[in-house]
Amino acid sequence: MKLMVQDQAFYRSFFRLTWIIALQNVISFGVNLSDNIMLGGYSESALSGVALANQLQFLLQMLVMGVGEGVVILSSRAWGARDMTTIKRVASIGMRLALALALVLWLAVFLFPHGCLSLFTNEDSVIAEGANYLRIIGFSYLFFAATNLLLASLRSVETVRVGFILSLSTLVINICLNYLLIYGHFGFPAWGVRGSAAATLTARIIELAIVLVYLKRVDRKINFTLRDFFHFDRQTFKQYLNVGSPILMSNALWGLAMAVQSGILGHMGEAAIAANSIATTVFQIVSVVTYASASATAVIIGKTIGAGHPEKIKPYAQTLQVLYLMIGLGTGAVLFLIKDVVLGFYAISPESKALALQFMTVLSITAVGTAYQMPALTGIVRSGGDTRFVLYNDFIFMWLIVLPSAFLCAAVFGLSPLLTFICLKSDQILKCFVAVVKVNRYRWIRTFGSPEPRG
């Protein structure tokens, strides 16, 4: 068996999906970057407060992505079999779950903004700014959940361009409104963090409107109607729970872990909060191809199994692993080369800037590990049918190794923010050893309804 597959259609599909999803992601993360840069020029407390508030947004994002990934796995297989009825039923279930999760989180941040933020830091100025942001941005959660669930359904049938259009519109609207509402230009009120929140809320509403118009006027694959989302199929729901609940639990644990990470760094001072926010945001933008490759993989593997071609999965998995490593090396190099240039855009303290530089140097190394193990596990293994393995793996590494050791570094031994940050990101390298063994044993390939693999 050759290391790299010779099927040109495979490469066209992978790179087309990866490219478009990456463009969508870079624009989406560009919204956070524009917030960071503009708020960094407004005040460091505003930047830190919004950074912590966005940890709650990140938790919602992980939960909605978990729901969406379950939708993609089931729907992409249905797409391979051209079973449009199942795709609509899965989308209905996913929409109910996504909106329910968004509603719960919105109630929490609306009713208890100070309490939520006090979990991350004891800096009163940071909590005050973050609470002002949360009271407004929370209203965007329902719009965000609905939009991303619909995009997941479209992605499962290889419709991805609309996501790029949505992200581009969000970026343009957000930047323009940030400029007007944070600083009060052209006669608009200078709302600071509240202006940033209002800008993002407006962009989220317009996003949903665009995707609804697309589904009504343009889409010819799924042909959603409003009635489809009121239909509930008990058998499909049971299948979704079997496949999707481990993904949702895994993403929930990951989102909570990121919140705990921010809490650990947040109690090490405002400089650590600002540096982590900057480094993480830049890393997300540079790593868009990594995350896009995982999404593209899920669609390709799911569609291939659904179309009845399981013999293609092994050579596809071998080729994908090589592509992941190439993406990782490129990502790490880009992050290392641009880190000084990016920091020049921030008006922050010298201490925060020096710490952000150190954090980005660490991430330029761990990016290689992330680019391999994340798509290998969440793209190949999950879409191949073993949706529980990533849940177990993430729980062990994050909750039993990384977070306890980082807490000891920060709270018990009093080590520096840099050493604590290294500890927090160490799992991105360690998981590679697990991913190599898991993927190349091929015991994750199965059809739903068959016994759980032991590998």
Gist of the model:
It is found in: Cell membrane. The protein contains 16 helices and no strands.
Assembly classification: single chain
How many domain regions? 1
Task: Please mark out the parts with pLDDT under 50 across 5 or more consecutive residues, or reply none.
Answer: 449-455
Number of strands: 0
Radius of gyration: 21 Å
Keywords: Cell membrane, Membrane, Transmembrane, Transmembrane helix, Transport
Membrane topology: Multi-pass membrane protein
Pfam families: MatE (PF01554)
Transmembrane segments: 14-33, 58-76, 97-120, 132-151, 163-183, 195-215, 240-261, 281-301, 322-348, 354-374, 395-422
What does it look like?
The protein has 455 residues and is mainly α. It has one domain (8-441). It is 81% helix and 0% strand. It has 16 helices and no strands. It has helices at 8-42, 44-80, 84-111, 113-118, 124-137, 141-156, 161-183, 193-217, 234-266, 270-286, 288-306, 313-343, 350-384, 389-412, 417-425, 427-441. α1 packs antiparallel against α2 and α7 (161-183) runs antiparallel to α8 (193-217). This is MATE family efflux transporter.
